[in-house]
């Protein structure tokens, strides 16, 4: 397993480099000009100097190489310095000073380092999108297990109906619907997410909890619908296997048969679905974050696209690609842990 993991990590490097090149070339072909938002009163020679300062005058291969050096060499140095000085590891690791003022990946829109902006937006995305994913999984797994065990029962039919609703209704409709019902008509929850709110005590935690309920509800509905259907199908496939009849013939309790033997084998395909969905947490939920004014990664990517901020779009897209490759590897490793029949030689 260790040899397989190391081999996959090594092979992922050229894959990621190819992905980064494809993303860079596609963004270069995208229409638009970052100088389009500059006021018309700015003289053309000043605009030209601004373009050169942003690196737009260099050849494409020079721009790509510059971004690679900044992303893979300079940004890790900044991250290591942050870990040893300003993070929770303060006092555990020796202080480093690797970064000495080299040019980082700069956003064309804000003129600030891209990774600094991403780290500022990440907590809001994890609060809302990450919590909704966890809630969706915790609800979906029991529903899928019980629906499969009680196939065609009233509970199974109700679960199928709710899942179809979750699959069918897009977030831009369900988000507006819950705002109208729970915020406008009932006045239970705020319709706008306050990103400046800080949790310091129990009262502030309740405020944070109240403003998270609606966006988490909208996102968790989709997660629950997807994973519960996969869980039900996987459980039904294993409940009819010979080893289940053998376990019951040996006199094992029904709870042991279902929750130990059947559940462990049924979780193997579900691991892939859950693992591949985790990168979407860090990618944010563009529509939901925009509806509820959550100042997260999804909204950041949307504003960067509208502003033609290529460094921001390039960096965010490549981070998503890294997460997808990483969690693909994690899913494959968990396969071998859950199913001893799987061996990577």
How does the SSE layout of this entry go?
Elements: H1 2-29, H2 44-53, H3 60-85, H4 114-149, H5 154-168, H6 171-185, H7 202-239, H8 242-249, H9 254-283, H10 286-291, H11 297-306, H12 310-338
Structural description of this entry:
Helix 4 (114-149) runs antiparallel to helix 5, helix 5 (154-168) packs across helix 7 and helix 11 (297-306) packs antiparallel against helix 12 (310-338). The protein has 345 residues and is mainly α. It has 12 helices and no strands. The mean pLDDT is 79.
Poorly predicted segments: none
Whole-number mean pLDDT: 79
CATH superfamily of the domain at 118-338: MetI-like
Number of strands: 0
Topology-level CATH name of the domain at 118-338: MetI-like fold
Radius of gyration: 24 Å
Explain briefly what this protein structure is.
It contains twelve helices and no strands. It is mostly helical and 345 residues long.
Keywords:
345 residues, globular, MetI-like fold
